[in-house]
Design goal:
Elements lengths: L1 E11 L2 E4 L1 H12 L4 E8 L4 E7 L6 H15 L17 H10 L2 E7 L2 E2 L5 E7 L5 E12 L1 H20 L1 H12 L4
Antiparallel strand pairs: 1-8, 2-7, 3-5, 3-8, 4-7, 5-6
Length: 182
């Protein structure tokens, strides 16, 4: 089973931004009733990325944001002699390089209608352009309908048994396994 929605995050300037609650606001309808599943978030841009990281700092989350931004700027400095500058110096390939390192997609397990993130984990938008931009996200939820899966599994098993041991013995086995009081 599946559910999908494309939505736009609020405009943000360069930096690392905790967006867990904003994303939850968009995907809540898709989480309802999902016992076991996966959420896939895909950002449709090459100058911003999504990641999961620390969502707590006793000095305030601004330390986490600043540290992540500083680390990325040191790994991929804007001051390099970038050749691809067709979109202007602010849009040099530095943003695209950081996006390639961080990634366009994250996946998060869903358990009983909730994201199964760790206690200290949050979803971040990492914006690499200085000017504020809004960013499109495609959220896809894939899940298993537990009740339907059990019924299908039982039907599949009975068909295989029928083919393997004959109709009468398979029916007796099926009734013994699945319709006995437990």
């Amino acid at each position: 089973m599946g559910w999908q929605k494309t939505f736009t995050l609020a405009r943000r300037a360069k930096g690392c931004h905790l967006v867990t609650e904003e994303i939850l606001g968009h995907i809540q309808p898709g989480l309802r009733g999902v016992q076991v599943g996966m959420l896939f978030l895909f950002i449709q841009h090459t100058s911003a990325a999504l990641t999961i990281n620390e969502n707590f700092d006793s000095g305030g989350l601004t330390h986490v944001y600043a540290d992540m931004d500083m680390a990325l700027d040191n790994v991929v400095p804007e001051s390099l002699n970038w050749l691809h500058t067709d979109e202007g110096p602010e849009y040099a390939i530095v943003s695209h390089t950081k996006t390639s390192l961080i990634g366009n997609t994250i996946s998060i397990p869903i358990t009983d209608g909730r994201l199964n993130l760790g206690t200290w984990q949050g979803i971040y938008l990492t914006e690499f352009r200085h000017a504020p931009h809004s960013r499109r996200i495609v959220a896809t939820i894939l899940y298993v309908d537990i009740k339907q899966t059990r019924i299908l599994g039982e039907c599949y098993s009975s068909v295989l048994l029928t083919l393997y041991i004959g109709r009468e013995r398979a029916l007796k086995y099926f009734v013994t396994m699945y319709y006995q009081p437990r």
